[in-house]
Write the structure tokens for this entry.
Amino acid sequence: MSYDFDLFVIGGGSGGIACARRAAEYGAKVGLAENDRLGGTCVHRGCIPKKLMVYASRFPAQFEEATGYGWSKPESHLNWSQMVRAVNNELDRLNGVYQRMLDKSNVQLFRGYAQFVDSHTVAIGDRKVSADKIIVAVGGRPVKPNNIPGIDLAVVSDDMFNLPEQPKSLVIIGGGYIGVEFACIMQGLGTQVTQIIRADRILRGFDGDLRSTLTEAMEKHGIRIFNNSNQIEIEKTDEGVKVISRSDKEDIAVADAVSLAATGRKPNLENLGLENTGVEIVDGAIAVNEISRTSEPNIYAIGDCTPTMELTPVAIREGRIFADTHFGKKDAKMSYENIPTAVFSTPEAATVGLTEEDAKAKYGDEAIKIYRAKFRPLYHTLSGQDEKTLMKLVVNRDTDKVLGAHMVGEHSGEIMQAIAISLKMGATKADFDATVALHPSSAEEFVTMR
């Protein structure tokens, strides 16, 4: 049967664009539909604008720390509108970069919302196109919990990048990485932040030492954290947006303008027309096998609309492996082991491999040996700040293999990227020990731990 395209990609985020371009490089005729700006969540409502705001939030502390080195503290204040404008200008530039990348790759772009007509046909507005293979890369979106009265008064993470004014105070509901990152960003920018979480600690699923160390640091920076807060409600008062404990009716926090619901995300599958196909949905996500194929043989899915890890580099790699396999005739498979990730908090945190808790659950307590270092980095010996860096290795006693690495401290993400290579290659603790340290650096602690 003849189709309009060899591959049609629904979604112009990082994963979809990477897949489309790689397939086109192999000679495939590729179409791509996107209803919003190119680049997806990461570029426009996530990684990039958030990291730029992280940079902005750290200048006040740097001004203060400079006095320990002999500099006079400058008088400075944040122009919120100018920061937001500068961030959005960069996002506009990146949108143009993605457009030029697609043009250069000869990927035909359809501006509009694509919906399945059947398993080989999608409609974009009034136009219908057919494709041999279709890949869904529509990402996800933030959601508000429906069990919190007054939750409609809260904004979601997408809205944080375009607030017209900087709030003097902010309540953040949620202890995941998005809530933690925005808590640190806004506190660093001068907003008083209160974070309310359901669990006993932030960052459920991360290593316990990492969670405790980061919590301690955030509280030192002035962030108020209320844990085990399962029953809350939000109401609008003359004072602002108030969060109340439903169990004892006591006030937990008041924000002058907004509260942020950072309580999770869900796949963006509404109105996609999947009911016109045989694609199976499980727990709100598109079910896929180890090669990203859905229950419909010619339809595939990658990224945050599937149950795999919600990370931009994961979606990109899934998309490229799909193209390599189907159009490049290469034997490639996606591996989800030892994928590094960072939390761009202040201080930063990063991790790769198994947590101590997961390693002990998998191999048994006696099979796991922990190497841990917590110290004041050289930079802060003169800055006058009470900042600590945590580094940790999780090692299998029987094989000496390093199963996990975790860090809280400056440049954690940059350091963990290199550590991830070691774990991916199966490095042992002896390999770490045999590596000559780069001195003086914080990173050297990973090869000097005893």
